[in-house]
Write a structure and sequence with these properties.
The complex is a heterodimer of chains A (about 240) and B (about 170). Chain A is globular, with a radius of gyration of 19 Å. The termini of chain A are far apart. With about 240 residues, chain A is α/β, with parallel strands linked by helices. Chain A has a single domain, classed as P-loop containing nucleotide triphosphate hydrolases (Rossmann fold, 3-Layer(aba) Sandwich). Chain A contains 9 helices and 10 strands. In chain A, α3 packs antiparallel against α4. Chain A has a 6-stranded mixed β-sheet, sandwiched between helices. Chain B is mainly α. Chain B has 7 helices and 2 strands, in the order ααββααααα. A two-stranded antiparallel ribbon of chain B has the order 1-2. Chain B is elongated. The chains are: A alpha/beta (about 240), B mainly alpha (about 170).
Chain lengths: ~240, ~170
């Protein structure tokens, strides 16, 4: 289990994370939601040790270091692959450095998405790049797969395919933390939703609890965010001067 | 057997371009260092004068110090070595170009992998520059000592080199 205790993170005086505490048990698919700048990416980067922070993050009771970092993988919309290298080169590199790298899964996913093995990544389309980024994170052999808006730029059919494949291939030990704005799309696929706003966790609910209470994910998020449904119509009225 | 250097460089980097740059640099440094030879030849000829049809040593003539003749002949190797150190910075910066492959390298169980790939080849190249510079220094010093008449040399030539180099 990844345990996050009272994490605080500031960027030049501005607090990006405020006393964030969270538990990520194995075998869950967790959606991490929040507006731009809410702290989703910062939280993931703190978990991975990319950013310094105050507080404590542990993996099965131990701090996350190079000894256990291979149990975590990361797919990001910024892409963490080498654009001048082909998938074949990435496969060899991952197999060399991550002992649990799954060649079988890699080949299966590459075939499924019909990605070329010997073409350099820089010549891939944005959608293909995103697919490949996610494929690498799924094949590393990690127990915790952190995905930061991995499907930005992919078409809806593509994403749909991916959710299905993901549900089909994940093993019980694998946890996925998925940060995305595509709330409705992932609502049928995640088991838990975590909401973050201005660096604070403001909601953490299991989808089962939501269902039992008769809510759906979107309404839960809107309620938690105190979303004003009349916001748009009022703004349009003001802009067009309809009241006058 | 061809040595595969790609395992010692950042993944996907254009190694051929770097090899070309280094090879060109080392060739230019060698050619530039050759300026020692005409300088020496001129200093050597000033030790003699013509008596009739015979070229004879001028009594009491002293050749210029080796360090003075060498001057900056080896500076090309130094510049190239400094370029290789700059290449290390480029190798690190490469992990931020076109993507954030730095995220992958930071997640590797082997913490030294990225440093190894960024540093090894530039350091090796800088070492080659140093060795080449020393080799040419010794060759030129050898030429100076062998072809200069003993009575025209001043003492402590080897020690004097360092005052020029440092």
């Amino acid at each position: 289990m990844i345990e996050i205790k009272n994490i605080n993170k500031s960027y030049t005086g501005k607090r990006a994370l405020k006393d964030v505490s969270l538990r990520l048990p194995q075998g869950e698919i967790i959606g991490l939601f929040g507006e731009n700048g809410a702290g989703k990416t910062t939280l993931m980067k703190c978990i991975l040790g990319f950013l310094p922070y105050s507080g404590e993050i542990t993996l099965d009771g131990s701090p996350i270091t190079r000894k256990n970092i291979a149990r975590l993988s990361f797919a990001t919309s910024e892409h963490s692959f080498f654009p001048n290298l082909a998938p074949k080169g990435h496969k060899e590199f991952y197999a060399e450095h991550f002992p649990r790298f799954s060649e079988k899964r890699f080949k299966g996913l590459m075939d499924f998405f019909e990605l070329p093995m010997n073409k350099t990544l820089r010549n891939f389309s944005t959608g293909q790049k995103n697919q490949f980024e996610v494929i690498l994170s799924l094949c590393q052999g990690a127990d915790y797969i952190l995905m930061d808006e991995p499907f930005a730029g992919n078409d809806v059919f593509n994403r749909e395919d991916f959710y299905k494949v993901l549900l089909g291939i994940l093993e019980p030990r694998e946890t996925v933390m998925l940060s995305t704005h595509l709330i409705e799309e992932v609502s049928g696929f995640i088991g838990r939703a975590v909401l973050i706003r201005q660096g604070k966790i403001i909601g953490d609910v299991s989808m089962m609890e939501l269902e039992e209470s008769g809510h759906n994910l979107m309404s839960f998020i809107k309620d938690t965010y105190h979303y004003r449904a009349d916001r748009v119509s009022r703004a349009l009225d003001e802009l067009t001067g309809r009241d006058e | 057997m061809k040595l595969d250097l790609t395992h010692h460089a950042p993944l996907g980097i254009n190694l051929q371009r770097e090899q070309r740059f280094f090879t060109t640099g080392i060739i230019c440094s060698i050619f530039y260092s050759l300026i020692f030879l005409p300088r020496y030849q001129q200093a050597h000829s000033m030790l003699y004068h013509w008596k009739g049809d015979k070229c004879v040593l001028i009594p009491g003539a002293i050749i210029e110090d080796f360090g003075v003749l060498l001057e900056n002949a080896l500076v090309g190797f130094l510049i190239l070595a400094l370029c290789m150190l700059a290449l290390i910075i480029y190798h690190y910066a490469y992990h931020y170009q076109g993507s954030k492959s730095i995220y992958l390298m930071k997640r590797l169980p082997n913490r030294w992998e990225m440093h190894r790939r960024c540093i090894t080849l530039p350091l090796l190249a800088a070492l080659i520059c140093l060795i080449a510079a020393i080799a040419f220094l010794l060759i030129y010093f050898g030429i100076y000592m062998v072809f200069t008449p003993k009575e025209c040399l001043t003492l402590g030539q080897w020690q004097k080199i360092w005052s020029v180099l440092l």
